[in-house]
Design a protein that fits this description.
By secondary structure, this protein is of the alpha+beta class. The chain is built from 4 helices and 4 strands; from the N terminus they run αβαβααββ. α3 packs parallel to α4.
Length: 204
């Protein structure tokens, strides 16, 4: 004849099962909370700015002298290295505006500013992907703008048209460390000739 479990042993067994259940719920909650905290720690804060992508002439992102034309090697680097990175940064920082900034050194343009400029007629059609004459700049500010437009056009046609892409020129004024020029001798400096690509959130 088997013995029936007593009321006290039943209560003890139920109490243990309740404790195990509570421990399981606590462990599951801790795992969820840990995952949330890790995700929160890796998420950019509202004030955090997206990183700047620098395309230095010395690093292979070079233009022919005085030109805004993109070489096949330049375009290949943009497609392989820059376009995927911009998409990833835009998603991570909820940024939808791409600023493409052309920088030059202080070396005066050949012709001393006497060369005719056709930027007013060529830059907008170039950006929109339409056929146009090659942009001709008479000064460094214009050359920086023409180069920024060439890169912006490529990014737009390479699948980033859902971003607002804004070409800009800083001419020779901003050094790679974000400090303004001190002036002085105008000399060729490949380290200052570059394109910078900056992402930001749309202004509300």
């Amino acid at each position: 004849m088997s013995r029936q479990p007593t009321r006290s042993s039943l209560a003890l067994q139920m109490g243990q099962e309740t404790i195990y259940l509570l421990l399981a719920v606590a462990l599951f909650s801790a795992i969820l909370l840990g995952g949330y905290l890790v995700a929160l720690a890796n998420r950019p804060t509202p004030r955090e700015e997206p990183p700047i992508i620098v395309l230095p002439e010395a690093g292979g992102f070079s233009f022919p002298a005085g030109s805004a034309a993109l070489s096949p090697a330049f375009e290949a680097r943009l497609a392989r290295q820059v376009v995927p990175r911009l998409r990833a940064i835009g998603k991570a920082y909820d940024a939808s505006v791409i600023e493409v900034i052309g920088h030059t050194d202080e070396t005066p343009r050949q012709g001393g500013g006497r060369l005719p400029s056709n930027l007013d007629r060529t830059l907008v059609p170039l950006y929109l992907g339409q056929a146009t004459a090659e942009p001709q700049a008479s000064d460094n500010a214009g050359l920086g703008m023409a180069r920024a437009v060439s890169v912006a056009r490529f990014l737009r046609l390479a699948g980033l048209a859902d971003f607002t892409i804004v070409p800009l020129s800083a001419g020779p004024f901003l050094q790679p460390d974000d400090k303004t020029i001190a002036g002085g001798e105008a000399r060729a400096d490949a380290g200052r000739r570059r394109i910078e690509v900056r992402l930001r959130r749309r202004r509300e």
